[in-house]
Predict the 3D structure of the following.
Amino acid sequence: MLIDQVETVCGLLSRRVECSGAERCLFFKEERQWRGLTWDEFNDLLDKMMAYLHQAGCRPGDRIGIMAKTSLLWDLCHYAILKLGGVVVGLDPHDTAENVVHIIGQAKIRGVFVDSDALEEKMAAHDGALFFILQGEYCYADGLRISGQERSAQGDIPLAKVAKDSPATIIFTSGTTGTSKGIVYSHTQVIQACRAILSRYHDVASDAHLPCWLPLSNLFQRMLNFAGISVGAKLFYVANPMEIVQQLPEINPDVLIGVPRFYEKVHEGVMQTMNRQPWPVRKLFAVCLYLRRANAVQETSSGPGSWKQKLADLLVLKRVRQRIFGTRLLYVISGSAPMPLWLLRWYQSLGVLVLEAYGISENIIPIACNSLDGYRFGTVGKVLQENTVHVAEDGEIFVKGPGVFEGYLTGDAQDKLTLDGFLKTGDEGSLDAEGFVTLQGRKSDFFKTSTGKRVSPMALEAALLQLDAFEHVLVIGEGRKVPIILATLAQESGKGLAEVESHVVRAKINALAKEMFPSGLRPAAAVLLPHSFTLAGGELTANLKLRRKVISEKYAQLIDDVYQRISAKDLPVEDIYILEDSQGGIVRL
């Protein structure tokens, strides 16, 4: 395998160009048509990009930020920086200006590459801390343009000697519980991670179609791209993530990666479409799903087995599946957060295998993942052989291996690493005899009420998201007598606050709460917010995870008001109460 022949990311790209120069493997949309570049053509553009960056002042060891949408241009800039001996720092274009400035300062970024006037203006106020800001665009007819002025691509560019231990990238933690922290990873660690991923997902062939649509500021998508380059797969860049569902049938992927919320939205879209169909069509779809689900007693097989399953798949499910994902799909991978068990089973009934994986920012090598060779629903799969995992007495997962970081840029990682080199993941879980890892949740997400009772909110949150009305759900109650629920309406539901059926929602919330919480720990109130949590608002990470601390601080007054009302009315906690006061941000259902 090509990945076994190289030690650096630069070497990986160079070997792919040597081996597959004439193959058309990098695809992008131009005027609603897919256009592909060969590796040789990409390499020619890469030389131009290196010239631009070198003339701007990029030198070996410089830390250069990329703030751009997911695109071929992102990767051009990415590999150009690495070949010049620089270090890539991904910046999320949707991140708040405050956090961007924080990252620039902590990582000591010397220059930033942006792809729009808006982002250049966003950076201009902080220009004093930067050596350069370049704005670029990829013009397919005329070549690359930087900052509205043509720069000469002539002359020899001094190529840096990139050692395997040289830093390749700095990534930042999602900041779900606090301020983002930077982590440096070397070229050899990136290559080791790529090898580990391909050893588990060895079924990704050289002709595989891989969508590139998640933010490249995050390593999740970049690692899939590295794996694709290693095997020679075809990469399809989707600049607007909102268009991924429409473009999937055109891309016809073999493998798709995403976060649970994405797969939930796909499920919601399918069900909304089916609910608009005539009754016989709805009934037939439901029966086919039931047949597959009822006969698929094993959760270790995604294909139809009995003749009833095969008939259901042939008549209905295959058509639905192919309209969403195309005809080549092997499986989809879900990461960043646990996927609800009901959703895993729904996709299995549809004939789509969801393989959950588990990794954290502080270990570039995934800790565990399910694969075609072995998977089990409700787990995040088997531990990769590069990792050593054990579970502490309090249930926290510890991991040790070559991908574990050496510390944050801030130098405050002492509490994360044990004396014998194990990383404290901050996740609670278990490890069975076969090596499968089951997660219970983040230790920081668990909380204690004022009565000393420990509450795990994640399971209830996942269950509540099954209700069509909700976009986001947060269960809180640290130091309070009882928990409460903050929820936002799903924009796709097409309903405003006044149209939501209060008694129906209340009944469903009550049923779930009573099923999942003992008396005395059930949430005492549910509050609907009139807007969704967003990246721009700072409530979500780039992987669409809730920033619990940010939300709790942002809605502190609302939360206090809710608890004052609960206390004043001395509401019993056997039932959920939907608060009816529209003042002070408390929204009536």
In short: Residues 163 and 274 are 55 Å apart (CA to CA).
